[in-house]
Amino acid sequence: MKTVLNPSVNKFAEVSERLNGINEYYFSQKLRQIDEMNKNGKNVLSFGIGSPDQPPHSDVTSTLIMESAQIGKHGYQSYKGSPLFREAISEWYMKWYNVSLNAESEILPLIGSKEGIMHICMTYINKGDEVLIPNPGYPTYKSAALLAGAEVREYILKEENNWLPDFEALEKTDLSKVKLMFVNYPHMPTGTFGTDEMFKKLITFAKKHQILICHDNPYSFIMPGFMNKNKPMSLLSYEGAKDVVIELNSLSKSHNMAGWRVGFLSGSAERVGEILRFKSNMDSGMFLPLQLAAVRALRLGEDWYTELNEMYDSRREKAFELLDTLGCEYDKNQVGLFVWASVPEEYGDGFSLSDEVLEHSNVFITPGGVFGSAGDHYIRVSLCAKIEVYEEAIMRISELLE
Ligand SMILES: Cc1ncc(COP(=O)(O)O)c(C=O)c1O
Q: What is the pTM of this model?
């Protein structure tokens, strides 16, 4: 019998079941609201996303300009990235993390590390497999795992446990269906630095329960006391890590290149090959001049990171002042591109504090609950604004509180 379509109902109006539980990314909606407020003359000061406001090193931008002016550099590129780029990544890992990576087989360039999260989920997850994600944590882990058909299991990070995973508590649960675990230190949003002890425990835990660890490491160059008190850390530098770890990394934060979309993943040749099987069906490589400029960025000396960190150190102090004005409490030893703080009881939670300062002072601060329920009583302030912007926000909020 011939099927008769009802012309008033589009077959495609119903999106796939895969999107159940997946909403538009919080910042995608919020930035639209802020744009609207600005159009109405509000001049919102935003301490939301961690998008560096400063340019990359001038050698990096001039490399991009020079290379893109040449003919012969505009075609499709290798799915595995340029050998020059992979070589530079390998040297960078050795220089800064003391990790040896085979440039040919243990590195895969990515169009930003965010896409790597999805590729990893699509490569390893079957419907019903369990994925451990941190709460609070980067929201994309959950969405990517759900899109790939996983059962998401949150592991709660608590302030009293210094925001580190509680392996003993996890081991009291059934881990037999857990295939993948996302871990991220320096941790976003709490600014927690990973410890030697925790990283070693993590590898033992992963081996014992045969869980693949995805260590997401985009913040390892942003920290107070760079190279004195704190040094960049890679989970791959621990013994036996390549058996169970894939590490994501990115030039977005460390080189002021968030909009360039340059990232990479590293791990054993087997894992890299498996992920390439998926990824090579999704895109057709990265623009070559971009890769060559990224090579230049990776070869910058210590001065680059020192200057970058000096700037963030002074902004961090201003962010502390802003939080003092609001009566929030925070740990002064935080690392990364944000400051995480608990909100005073009178506000109820981070969402109400955020709404109140946005409505009455035109200042946007991210509510911690965006990163999971364990962040409900916290807020996160980005360090991606100039000193004057913190000063203006402090003034506006002080006036509100008077
Ligand atoms: C924890 C974490 N992981 C990954 C990313 C993605 O970074 P990118 O895709 O720019 O490399 C971000 C960006 O904010 C992040 O905060």
A: 0.95
